[in-house]
Amino acid sequence: MGTDVLVIGGGNAALCAALMAAEAGASVTLLEAAPREWRGGNSGHTRNLRCMHDAPQDVLVDAYPEEEFWQDLLKVTGGITNEKLARLTIRASSTCRDWMRKHGVHFQPPLSGALHVARTNAFFMGGGKALVNAYYRSAEKLGVQIRYNAPVERLEIENGRFVAAWVGNERITAKTCVLAAGGFESNREWLRQAWGQNERGEWPADNFLIRGTRFNQGVLLKHMLAQGADPIGDATQAHMVAIDARAPLYDGGICTRIDCVSLGVVVNTEARRFYDEGEDFWPKRYAIWGRLVAQQPGQTAYSIIDSKAIGRFMPPVFEGVQAQTLPELAQKIGLDVDTFMQTLNDYNAACRPGTFDHTTLDDCHTEGVSPAKTHWARTIDTAPFYAYAVRPGVTFTYLGLETDETAAVRFGGVPSDNLFVAGEMMAGNVLGKGYTAGVGMSIGTAFGRIAGTQAARAALSGGAQ
């Protein structure tokens, strides 16, 4: 016979749903597409959770009130967000840590190199992999049946209600179901289709690297959209970061990030700057750079710094290209030396002296050069010089299923009474575009817990709410 609650997915949101449903007394089965050693989806690559708090709390310093969190989200999304669901996420982020600890998650004091993120984000001891492992251990203790290598290709849905899921030729029934199977970032064909061809005749998506799991193919998402589930979001919008061009195609994770952008200049393959490198603090702006680079020729750019920047950012895994002079650096990375030197000379001449402080929006800026650099603008003049080639790294896509405060999947505006959605499959409700560090885990935790609670309630009350 079937289970009370079927959870499809194996990352943070799916695990939160499974744990909440099991705590509510429901029998739960979790289907993870990946083998056990690759379980956890993108959550294994995370480090922290963005948390609202009105006063200092354990590992969080100062205060990060609801309104400031909301304004941060509003700024990065350009207003493309559902305020009701965003505020629900923000409020939930202030109360989830005790529950997380109960399920074996440990938090660590902030790292000194994390700048001011210690005020806004709580870091997991051992990172996302430790969090995922803790949740799996807790789920097993609570009796959740976990199946690996169990990708769901399709669902049986009747009149907006979940009936069964299919894994290969096996039909799995349940009273209620939670969808938390991630986006489609690992599906190259879908990315190509979404991004199309640019004016240079390139297919930008062919040069994208995937920061997270190879198992997020979007099979279930595509199936749900074909079944008439209400969509949310734009297929080209994603949490997309400029990462080391030498990163692996999948699962590079955090360590492939290049974090020196705000300390130097970024040029494209034509040796020209194309955006303000000092627009805002890096945790708020790092996730726009993947999209910016995706729009450049060859989807490649170069972060250029001098030795004054060394020690001020998280060092990359791979060493940068190093040279004693700027013309030599241009030659080594294959850029036109004359154009490169004109770009660097114009930038250096435009830098206005100020009091450099990488922990504040300082007064070091440029004048008379376009694009401007509004903060942390210092001349690049102290050898040795370094260049890091970057390409777009997709973390997760924002096209998903529209939902409401009950996490219900909607068909023609009508919420299902036994089919729910959480995590990356619905993050587009909150993230229309842009990203700010740790908010993906805030969304997954909030809606995973809501979806699990609602699914258990519907299952134990006989289906209808």
Overview in brief:
InterPro entries: CobZ (IPR012831), FAD-dep_OxRdtase_2_FAD-bd (IPR003953), FAD-oxidoreductase_2 (IPR050315), FAD/NAD-bd_sf (IPR036188), Succ_DH/fumarate_Rdtase_cat_sf (IPR027477). This protein has 465 residues and is an alpha+beta fold.
Highlighted features:
alpha+beta; FAD/NAD(P)-binding domain; Flavocytochrome C3, Chain A, domain 1; 2 domains; globular
Protein described:
Keywords: FAD, Flavoprotein, Oxidoreductase. With 465 residues, the chain is of the alpha+beta class. It contains 13 helices and 21 strands. It has helices at residues 12-23, 66-77, 83-93, 97-102, 117-120, 127-141, 188-195, 219-226, 282-285, 289-294, 326-332, 337-350, 439-460; strands at residues 3-8, 28-31, 48-50, 107-108, 121-124, 145-147, 154-158, 161-167, 170-179, 209-210, 231-232, 238-244, 265-268, 301-306, 321-323, 351-352, 365-366, 385-397, 400-401, 408-411, 414-421. Strand 7 (154-158) and strand 8 form a beta hairpin. The model has no long low-confidence stretch (mean pLDDT 95).
